[in-house]
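Handout, tutorial session.
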Amino acid sequence: MTAEQLKSLIAAGMPCDHLEVEGDGRHWFATIVSPEFEGKRLIARHQRVYATLGQRMKTDEVHALSMKTFTPAEWAAPR
């Protein structure tokens, strides 16, 4: 799987205001900004992304995914 393929899968499964994906083909890092994260704790945000990837996480097609998740307001705020 390529970074673009993984990015497309996430974007197809949930609305993203901003989405960056990088990695080596097995280990991935994503920065995801989505209005779906409003009112959700970190674990619920990650579970939402994992649900989008479904079986790909279970079959090891996506071996490891680290992510930073933001609401649009969090992303717009100074960091």
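The second record follows below. Compare its token runs with those of the first.
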Amino acid sequence: MTTTDTSNRPIDTSYATAPTRTITAAGVTFAYRELGPKGGIPVVFFVHLAATLDNWDPRIVDPIAKDHHVITFDNRGVGASTGEVADSVEAMADDAYTFITALGFDTIDVFSFSLGGMVAQALVAKHPELVRKLVLTGTGPAGGKDIDKVAGITYWDILRATLTRSDPKEFLFFNRNATGKAAGKAFVKRLQERTVDRDAPATVKVLQTQLKAIKKWGRSAPADLSKLTQPTLIANGDNDRMVPSVLSEDLHRRITGSELVIYTDSGHGGIFQYHDRFAPVAVEFLAR
């Protein structure tokens, strides 16, 4: 195992300036960023479909990093991480375990969004002792209704975005009404706040491979979520076209003692549209 640090600066409190580091384990060099005070249980962020380090909303990361050691990372074969992109959710969970244990952690909290939430569930199923608390946003369970339709929606919205010279996330994550359009543009603008040391964008191959993994997850046998004993916070918008909002309610019903927050007039990116309301909820949940 080897680690390299691309900066001698102290740990940052702003995601826009947190240096990119690497750690090599099991033949893969993982790119990651960390910020916030070290010590205590770190919060590891599990990213969405075809996403890199630069896809996390600083208005979510920074409030959590104020009092927590936050770590974000690129999946294998994505962004600045080496290797072949994983073709199943379970393989991504194995990679996450490799990365987390290489950093020397035996207990973490997980913050996840979309595909990241699926990976988080697979990780907890295999290594329940590793995860203390779980935040699942914009996601659904294995075998969840219509998860296997994500690919069709994604390709359609990429086409719509291309025709209007927009970022696909504006279509995929937000409603196409006045409120949603404004929230989408504001979100995309926030992702540009980091101006140095930006990550390589995900390739078409990454998108295609991860979409196949999501389809497999949607068509797999339902997991027994009654075994999941970690305190769990679930959040989504009320009109998620990518991972239907009813699946957040499904997760809530099946995970004993879980908490559910649904934001009205918002889509897949409800937590980003309502970051000013959601970030304090996540902070309070993790601090409990």
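Points raised in discussion: DSSP finds ten helices and nine strands in the chain.
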